Each structure stands twice: as structure tokens, then as C-alpha cells.
């Protein structure tokens, strides 16, 4: 179809309304497919193999070694997932409250929320992790009850701080991005501010918050390796142990990132939003994705 | 609170409103009686929309008085929710809730705000959908409806609250000439049923047909007002004549 055909179809000659022509042969469009993961996997293994081949040590085959260490590494990685999921859950819950605090009608609530958000959003993640590690006690006693705080719990708390601040900004941004007409319509129907927020504004924000929220989750999952620096036995720590036990082979550091690739790719590509809210909330996204 | 039939439904007296240094309303007064249809016309920026947004307290005023059924709107202790239950509003940009279907849009406020029974509300809502001639569109989302259809849902949504007066803020300005008529027809039916309507509009033919009284505003004051026949045919003020000559 020629461009003019599209114009007649949509009855417009406004430049912004003209539908872009479909890409014809010769144009290159890159889309990440699951099999790309296997390409990366092979690249890692082959390079590991080369690294092995150029060393002249009398060692067990690289694959034997990897298979032997696999259960332990996998256990370590699951620990990373637990840390990231918990940090995300805590960060999202507290961050959402903080984000709503940033748009509160009470001046001091708004200012305090803003200050907390800015402080934790603009501090390096590693610093916040150390902050949690060394400032939190190893156990807390409430009444007669003593709750131990092992390192991994402290790591969760430390990582949930930047997540919280980022979620706070995501929530605030999404709320402010809605047209003011939505507020006015709700107000003119005698909704209270609370009802307006919960029934009208926030449900629409979910759609807007989902992509940045998934980004944050992917970034957080990658950042869980920071916990190895403060001594939590997660996958990076265990990789280091395997590395020293098996005699300094470099392929370990090519192998471990694959866990992350597999997980993050799956999580971001198949997150529920794509399917659950297709008709309802994500309707417009669907329209954007659909070609002419 | 008295609901005296003799008293004007909405009584606006010497209203002043500024946005910062910009004075938008410079002493506007008008009375709207129960069952009356009022059209406010005038050039852009003359304060028409601001004036009707003051009636349901979406905008506050600096000076003057607005009485809605005897209740003072320019009062710091005003119960805005009680006021807005009596005063409906329809917007230029429809402002439907895009995450709710047409029917849900209509049902939400009576259920959540007025705490009415869900079954009864649904019955009313379906009747309203029928009234605005949108049968079969109950389960469509606003994004799936045309502008005219969305605007009629918005009118039904406002009616579901059973308001005493409805404010229409340039409700046909965003529509194409064909769909304008379907919306105007709906408003006309409302007017004939005795609903008190305050319209800001650029549809002169429509204003002439349905309005009981026409107000012409320019630069924050009412230049001239009167019943449609006198207003359109025997305008006295030169500013009104100039405006009408450009539009008619």
C-alpha cells in the first residue's frame, strides 16, 4: 500500500496521524528470542573450553567440574532469587506508601517522604548495603522476643532501601502523569480524595508503573551479587569458592551470569502483565504493538 | 437548609476570581431558577468555563457569593461532597475512567459515594444507557467508543447521581459536526424533562433552540443577557453584535 492509501483510510492528512508504512524487505529488526540465550550459553562454554584447552593442567573435564558444582551454585542462585524477591516485595510495599506520601496534601508528610526518597535514591546501592550490614544489630529484642538478624536478612533490608526509593518515584511519576481531567471528573462526582486515588487514579497507574517496575526488578536481581561483598553465601560467593577449589579457572565467571540471563530474560519477557490485563488495562499497549 | 421553590436554584452574586495576577471574573452575577436552561456564550478566555467550575467548587473564588439551593459555596467550611452530589458536571474531554466499562463508569459513583444498593444502581444505569441510546455498549471500554458515545456515557454517569443541576462545559467542542447532534439531542431531552442545565457552548443554533436565557461574557464580565429571541435578534451592546456577526 502506498502512503496515500493510508491517509484516505484514516481520513486525515495531519502528519502525526499518518500511520507509518510497514517495514518492507531489507530492513533489519532485532527481537530477542529464547534461542539467543542458547547462543550465549554456547559462547560461554566454548570460550571456557578454549580457556581450558590452553591451560596444560591435568584437570577433570570442564563439564564434569561444572556438573559437580552445579547443585551448590544453583542453591546459591536460588538464594539470590529469594533476596531479590523479598527486597522487591518490601521495597514495593514501603516505596508505594512513600510515593503516595510524596503527593500527600499534608505538607510535612510530603516533605519527609521527598527527603527519604531523595536520600535513598541518590546513594550508591553498595553503600546502602554496608549501611544495613553494619548499622543493624545482629538481633533485635522486642518485649521478651528475640529476633535474630542474619546477614542475608540484613542484605534484604539493605537492598530494599534503594528499591523503595525508586518505587516511590515510579508511583509519584505515574500518578502525576495522569491527565488532571481524571481527578476533576472524580471530584465532580463527589468522590473523596482517598476514593479518587484508590478507585480511579491508582488502577490506571498500574499500567504505567509496570514497565519501570520490571526494569527495577531486573536491575535488583543483578545487584544481589553485591551481597557477596558483605559475606552472604550467594551464588557469587560460591563461585569464588569453586574457583579456588578447582584451581583458578576463568570459565566460572562466564558460567555464573547465565543463571541471571535465564532468569531475567524469562521474568521480563513473560511477566504476567502481558497477558492478564490485555483487554482491560493494557489495551492501548496492544494497539501500540500492532503494526498497520 | 431551605429548598424554597421561589428561591433561585443557583444564585451568583458579584463573583471575582483571579489566577495569580490574572483576573478572570470581574464581578459576575446571575440567577438560575429550577428547571431553567442557561447558555453562557462568549469568546475564548472570557471566563465562561471558570465561572461554571466555580459553581461546583472545582475552582474557588476570591470574592462574591455563589448560592446553590441556599448553600454558600464561597465558604471555607463548605462540605464539597454534599455540594457535588447536587451539582453534576460534564466535561469537554469526557474524562471517563478508561479502566472501567461504560456501565461501570455510570455505576461507580452511586455505589461508592451514595452507598446505594448495587442491584438497584445497575437497573438505573441500564435505564440511563438506554436513555442516551447506547444499548449494547454497556460492556465496552471508553477507548472502544466514539467521542459522541463517550460524551453520552459521561452525561449518563452524571445523571446517575440524580443531581439537581448539571453543568456542561463545552461538551461538544471536541466532537465532529455529525456526532455533535447526537449529544445535543440528549441534552435537549434532558432540558425538556425539566433538568436545570447550565451550558457553556459555541453551538448558537442549539442555544437559541433550548435555552431559556442567554448570557454573553467577555473579559470576565457579563456584557449582555436575555431570552434567546431578544438576545440574538435585538442585541444592543456593540461587543455582542460584533461577536454574533462573526458567528452567525
Automatic annotation (TrEMBL), chain B:
CDD domains: ABC_HisP_GlnQ. Pfam families: ABC_tran (PF00005). It comes from the Bacteria. Residues 10-244 form the ABC transporter domain. Keywords: Amino-acid transport, ATP-binding, Cell membrane, Membrane, Nucleotide-binding, Transport. It is a peripheral membrane protein. It is found in: Cell inner membrane. GO terms for cellular component: plasma membrane. InterPro entries: AAA+_ATPase (IPR003593), ABC_ATPase_HisP-typ (IPR030679), ABC_transporter-like_ATP-bd (IPR003439), ABC_transporter-like_CS (IPR017871), MetN_ABC_transporter-like (IPR050086), P-loop_NTPase (IPR027417). GO terms for molecular function: ABC-type amino acid transporter activity; ATP binding; ATP hydrolysis activity. Belongs to the ABC transporter superfamily. This is Peptide ABC transporter ATP-binding protein. It comes from Leucothrix pacifica. The lineage of its organism: Bacteria, Pseudomonadati, Pseudomonadota, Gammaproteobacteria, Thiotrichales.
Amino acid at each position: 500500500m502506498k502512503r496515500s492509501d493510508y491517509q484516505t483510510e484514516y481520513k486525515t492528512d495531519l502528519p502525526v496521524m499518518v500511520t507509518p508504512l510497514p517495514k518492507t524487505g531489507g530492513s533489519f529488526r532485532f527481537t530477542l528470542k529464547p534461542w539467543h540465550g542458547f547462543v550465549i550459553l554456547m559462547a560461554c562454554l566454548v570460550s571456557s573450553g578454549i580457556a581450558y584447552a590452553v591451560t596444560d593442567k591435568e584437570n577433570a573435564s570442564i563439564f564434569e567440574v561444572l556438573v559437580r558444582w552445579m547443585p551448590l551454585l544453583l542453591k546459591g542462585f536460588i538464594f539470590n532469587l529469594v533476596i531479590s524477591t523479598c527486597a522487591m516485595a518490601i521495597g514495593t510495599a514501603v516505596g508505594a506508601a512513600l510515593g503516595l506520601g510524596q503527593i500527600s496534601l499534608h505538607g510535612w508528610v510530603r516533605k519527609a517522604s521527598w527527603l527519604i526518597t531523595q536520600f535513598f535514591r541518590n546513594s550508591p546501592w553498595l553503600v546502602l548495603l554496608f549501611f544495613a550490614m553494619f548499622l543493624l544489630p545482629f538481633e533485635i529484642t522486642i518485649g521478651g522476643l528475640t529476633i535474630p538478624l542474619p546477614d542475608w536478612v540484613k542484605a534484604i533490608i539493605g537492598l530494599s532501601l534503594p528499591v523503595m526509593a525508586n518505587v516511590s518515584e515510579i508511583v509519584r511519576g505515574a500518578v502525576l502523569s495522569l491527565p488532571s481531567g481524571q481527578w476533576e471528573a472524580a471530584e465532580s462526582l463527589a468522590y473523596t480524595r482517598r476514593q479518587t486515588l484508590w478507585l480511579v487514579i491508582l488502577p490506571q497507574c498500574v499500567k504505567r508503573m509496570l514497565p519501570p517496575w520490571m526494569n527495577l526488578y531486573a536491575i535488583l536481581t543483578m545487584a544481589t551479587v553485591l551481597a557477596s561483598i558483605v559475606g552472604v553465601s550467594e551464588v557469587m560467593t560460591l563461585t569464588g569458592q569453586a574457583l579456588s577449589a578447582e584451581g583458578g579457572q576463568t570459565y566460572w565467571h562466564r558460567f555464573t551470569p547465565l543463571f541471571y540471563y535465564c532468569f531475567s530474560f524469562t521474568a521480563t519477557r513473560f511477566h504476567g502483565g502481558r497477558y492478564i490485563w490485555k483487554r482491560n488495562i493494557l489495551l492501548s499497549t496492544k494497539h501500540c504493538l500492532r503494526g498497520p | 437548609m431551605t429548598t424554597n421553590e421561589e428561591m433561585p436554584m443557583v444564585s451568583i452574586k458579584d463573583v471575582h476570581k483571579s489566577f495569580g495576577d490574572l483576573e478572570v471574573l470581574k464581578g459576575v452575577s446571575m440567577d438560575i431558577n429550577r428547571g431553567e436552561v442557561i447558555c453562557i456564550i462568549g469568546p475564548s478566555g472570557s471566563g465562561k468555563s471558570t465561572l461554571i467550575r466555580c459553581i461546583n467548587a472545582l475552582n474557588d473564588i476570591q470574592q462574591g457569593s455563589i448560592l446553590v439551593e441556599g448553600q454558600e459555596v464561597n465558604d471555607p467550611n463548605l462540605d464539597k461532597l454534599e455540594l457535588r452530589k447536587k451539582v453534576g458536571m460534564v466535561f469537554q474531554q469526557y474524562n471517563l475512567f478508561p479502566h472501567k466499562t461504560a456501565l461501570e463508569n455510570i455505576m461507580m459513583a452511586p455505589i461508592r459515594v451514595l452507598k446505594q444498593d448495587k442491584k438497584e444502581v445497575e437497573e438505573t444505569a441500564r435505564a440511563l444507557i438506554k436513555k442516551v441510546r447506547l444499548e449494547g455498549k454497556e460492556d465496552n471500554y471508553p477507548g472502544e467508543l466514539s467521542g459522541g458515545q463517550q460524551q453520552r456515557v459521561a452525561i449518563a454517569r452524571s445523571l446517575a447521581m440524580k443531581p439537581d443541576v448539571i453543568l456542561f462545559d463545552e461538551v461538544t467542542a471536541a466532537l465532529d459536526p455529525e456526532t455533535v447532534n447526537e449529544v445535543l439531542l440528549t441534552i435537549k431531552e434532558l432540558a425538556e424533562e425539566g433538568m436545570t442545565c447550565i451550558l457553556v457552548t459555541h453551538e448558537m443554533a442549539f442555544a437559541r433552540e433550548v435555552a431559556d436565557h442567554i448570557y454573553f461574557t467577555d473579559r470576565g464580565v457579563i456584557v449582555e443577557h436575555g431570552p434567546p429571541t431578544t438576545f440574538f435578534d435585538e442585541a444592543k451592546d456593540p461587543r455582542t453584535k460584533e461577536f454574533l456577526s462573526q458567528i452567525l
